[in-house]
Structure formats: structure tokens, C-alpha cells
Design brief:
The protein has 8 helices and 11 strands. It is an alpha/beta fold and 307 residues long. It has a single domain, classed as Alpha/Beta hydrolase fold, catalytic domain (Rossmann fold, 3-Layer(aba) Sandwich). Strands 3, 6, 7, 8, 9, 10 and 11 form a 7-stranded mixed sheet that branches. Strand 10, helix 7 and strand 11 form a beta-alpha-beta unit. Helix 2 packs across helix 3 and helix 4 packs antiparallel against helix 5. The protein is globular.
């Protein structure tokens, strides 16, 4: 099983976490906050944390935070089952009846899986920059796959899976990667099929909000529409390039309206797809709300809702 990174599990063994001094109880939710990363993501590799500075900021404001790690390149279902196992472990560690799930990118689809199959374990679901109605970038990858044929697709997928395996190995695991399954899930067709299985809080209109509460679970979402947000961040150029594949406002990988789920907190932050989790290394726009603040505010929102 994938390891829990923080605050209690390291290397698969339960260890007592060093106490974190809470400067306030602003983010002190009733239930633990559980973070789920996106495609090609990780919990922590060496000194690099996927959620750069976010967990520690939440903890310093009173929250109990767990950073989970799923297979970097896999289908929603496989990742969802991995997260469900970790949620059960977190509940066993903390004694909490439920958890607050927050997922970034594909992680938003992962947390929806857990909410769909085990709603009794979930107090809230928050998605950040998640393509709930698919991403044209995934559709473009599928077009390329059709052009190069089965052999070419296998070669490309094999190379991508190898990279994902290295990410997974660096994160302390070495699971089976399936980038093709992940990409197929993230196309418009794949997203539609997933939404038919797990329809809770999906907007009925093209760019509306979904149900604020579904099956006893509160749903929220936010995202950005920025591309080149920091002159110091080289990854911004890749977001600008992939953003050209998407018509209308987007964050470089996800269309603005595709990110909507439940209560839409905001969908036009000047943040690109990586900025919303304070990547890379906190190199984000200095003229926009800091990503750490968006997570802190969401924790307070959950607290005020009794979650």
C-alpha cells in the first residue's frame, strides 16, 4: 500500500509525529484534512513537497493534515482504491469518524471516487484545478495516439510509464504505472463516463455550479486561469504551451468551466495548474492570493461549516 507522508506515517511504519506548534485555531477543522495529488504527482521526494508549504501552514493554524500518495500514472479507480485504503488507515490512527478530502488535478477525481464508494467516511470533498468534464490536452494526446498507431502508442506510453515509475520510486514505492488509462480517463469521453458513475455535485449546465451538498457530503472547488505568472518559474512556459490546445480561459491544462464542482469558490485566480498547489517551489504570482492562503481559507470554511 502507498505510504502516508505526513504527519504520522513514514516508510510504512507508524511513527509519532513531532508536535507542530499551532499559532492559531483558524484552520482547526473537526475532521482531518486529507490531501490527494494529481497525475505524475507524489507526496514528497527528498526535500521537494508536492504541496509546497501548504501542509505546514495548515498545521500551524490548527489543522490535522495527512498527505497521501497514489500511483503517479494510473486510472481514477486504481488511485481511488489506494486513497480509500489510506483514508481507513487515517481513521484508525486518529479515531475520526470522517475526513475532509482535498484533491488537486486528477486527485480531484480520486477523492470523488472515495466519496462515491464510501460516503459514510467523507465529510467534504474539495477539488482544486480538476478537469471534471475532461481536458482537451488529454483529447489531443488521444488524437496523437490514433495517428501513431498501437505500436507507437505502446512505445510512447512505455517511456511515460518509466518516468512515472521513477517518480513513484522516489516517493518510496514502485507500483504498476498506466499512463494510457489515466489519459483516457481525463478525456471528455472518459470524464463523461466517470460522471455518470459518480454524478454527485457535477454541474448540470456547461459552466454552472453543482449541488453544494450531495449524499450528505459538502462539495467545493476552485481553480485559476493564469499561465505566465512568475518570471522565475520555467514551468510556466509549458503551461502556456499546453494552454494553446484549449479554447477559452484555462490554467494550462484544465478549462475554467471543467473545474467546477459543487460550490465554486472561484475559478479565475491568476494561477496556472501548478500554482494552485504552490508549485514550483512557491514561485507563483506576487500579485495574487498566495496558494497557501486559499487552502487555509478553505480549512476555515470547513471549520465554520462544522466539518
Amino acid at each position: 500500500m502507498k505510504k502516508l507522508i505526513a504527519p504520522l506515517l513514514l516508510g510504512g511504519s507508524v511513527l509519532a509525529a513531532a508536535p507542530v506548534h499551532a499559532a492559531s485555531d483558524y484552520a482547526k477543522t473537526k475532521y482531518p484534512i486529507v490531501l490527494s495529488h494529481g497525475l505524475f504527482g507524489f507526496g514528497k521526494i527528498g526535500p521537494v513537497n508536492y504541496w509546497h508549504g501548504i501542509p505546514s501552514d495548515l498545521q500551524s493554524n490548527g489543522a490535522r493534515v495527512f498527505v497521501t500518495a497514489q500511483t503517479p500514472a494510473q486510472s481514477h479507480d486504481v488511485r481511488g482504491e489506494q486513497l480509500l485504503a489510506q483514508v481507513k488507515e487515517i481513521q484508525a490512527i486518529t479515531g475520526a469518524a470522517k475526513v475532509n478530502l482535498i484533491g488537486h488535478s486528477q486527485g480531484g477525481m480520486t477523492v470523488r471516487y472515495v466519496a462515491g464508494v464510501a460516503p459514510e467516511r467523507v465529510a467534504s470533498v474539495t477539488s482544486v484545478s480538476t478537469p471534471h468534464k475532461g481536458s482537451p490536452v488529454a483529447d489531443a494526446v488521444q488524437v496523437v495516439s490514433n495517428i501513431v498507431g498501437p505500436l507507437g502508442t505502446d512505445i510512447i506510453a512505455g517511456a511515460v510509464n518509466a518516468i512515472a515509475w521513477l517518480i513513484d520510486f522516489g516517493d518510496g514505492s514502485a507500483g504498476r504505472q498506466d499512463a494510457l488509462a489515466a489519459m483516457n480517463n481525463l478525456t471528455a469521453v472518459g470524464a463523461l463516463a466517470y460522471n455518470q458513475r459518480f454524478p454527485d455535485a457535477i454541474p448540470a449546465s456547461a459552466c454552472g455550479s453543482g449541488a453544494a451538498v450531495a449524499n450528505g457530503i459538502r462539495y467545493y472547488s476552485w481553480s485559476g486561469t493564469g499561465h505566465l505568472t512568475s518570471v522565475l518559474d520555467p514551468s510556466d512556459w509549458s503551461m502556456a504551451a499546453t494552454g494553446l490546445l484549449i479554447s477559452g480561459p484555462n490554467d494550462g491544462l484544465v478549462p475554467q468551466c471543467s473545474s467546477h464542482l459543487g460550490t465554486v469558490i472561484r475559478d479565475n485566480y491568476n494561477m496556472n495548474h501548478l500554482d494552485t498547489v504552490n508549485q514550483v517551489l512557491g514561485l507563483v504570482s506576487i500579485f495574487e492570493t498566495n496558494p497557501k492562503a486559499t487552502f487555509r481559507q478553505q480549512a476555515n470554511r470547513l471549520k465554520l461549516a462544522g466539518l
